[in-house]
Design a protein that fits this description.
Helix content: 55-70%
Number of helices: 10
Structural class: mainly alpha
Strand order of the largest sheet: 1-2
Radius of gyration: 17 Å
Distance between the termini: 32 Å
Largest sheet: 2 strands, antiparallel
Strand content: 5-15%
Length: 218
């Protein structure tokens, strides 16, 4: 699951105008923003196995800190608390928490049964849509397209950055998704981790675009 997470973020920004698109991106992708750091630190592990599924060559061996359901709830509460401390907005904090938790739930659609419920407990979730490229596309692309449409319908550009920056962001996310689906396997786990760290640039891009757009009158 990749662009599906961003689709949920776009939609959440539409439903909760007080949250920046950058904040929605950060929350929806928080588990995957945390995971690369844990990979680099050796606290979690993944293995590259071409053909592991039709969509991804990655075998997620151990990632209970970033991707267990229990810890997703903990991270959701922590990120929401941080947002509440900065903005004093209960509704926004609840949406932020739900966005963080949504990451695990969406991942459970596509992953093999490798998502732990609780660290240290041998019980896993995963419906395995990654075993079918068509099923993965059917799950993610409409989610992304609807989210972008909702955001675009609810906001208007203040300038060229707001207009073309959004178009560039959407196109870039689609390009990354295509590369994930049809590109070659990554060369190493270290490369995966550093590319994963680059997702922070997407968060900054979303903050930048959103600052150049304003909500349309209801």
């Amino acid at each position: 699951m990749f662009i599906g997470h961003f689709g949920i973020a776009f939609a959440a920004r539409r439903c909760t105008p007080q949250i920046s698109l950058g904040t929605a991106f950060l929350a929806a992708q928080f588990l995957d923003l945390l995971w690369p750091t844990l990979l680099l630190a050796g606290a979690e592990s993944v293995r590259i196995q071409p053909g592991a599924t039709e969509v991804t060559p990655l075998v997620f061996e151990h990632y209970p800190i970033s991707h267990s359901l229990l810890m997703a709830g903990v991270w959701a509460a922590a990120v929401a608390a941080g947002y509440a401390a900065m903005h004093r907005n209960l509704a926004g904090s609840i949406v932020v928490a739900l966005l963080v938790l949504s990451h695990w739930l969406l991942d459970a659609l596509v992953h093999e049964p490798d998502l732990p419920f609780v660290p240290g407990v041998d019980a896993f979730a995963g419906l395995g849509l990654w075993n079918s490229r068509a099923a993965t596309l059917l799950a993610e692309v409409p989610m992304f397209a609807i989210g972008v449409w909702l955001y675009a319908r609810a906001t208007q550009a203040l300038d060229r950055v707001g207009r073309y920056g959004l178009l560039g962001l959407v196109a870039f996310l689609a390009l990354i998704h295509a590369g994930n689906l049809y590109g070659p396997p990554p060369p190493s786990v270290t490369a995966i981790a550093w590319v994963g760290q680059a997702q922070w640039l997407l968060v900054l891009w979303a903050y930048w675009v959103d600052a150049h757009r304003e909500p349309l009158p209801a």
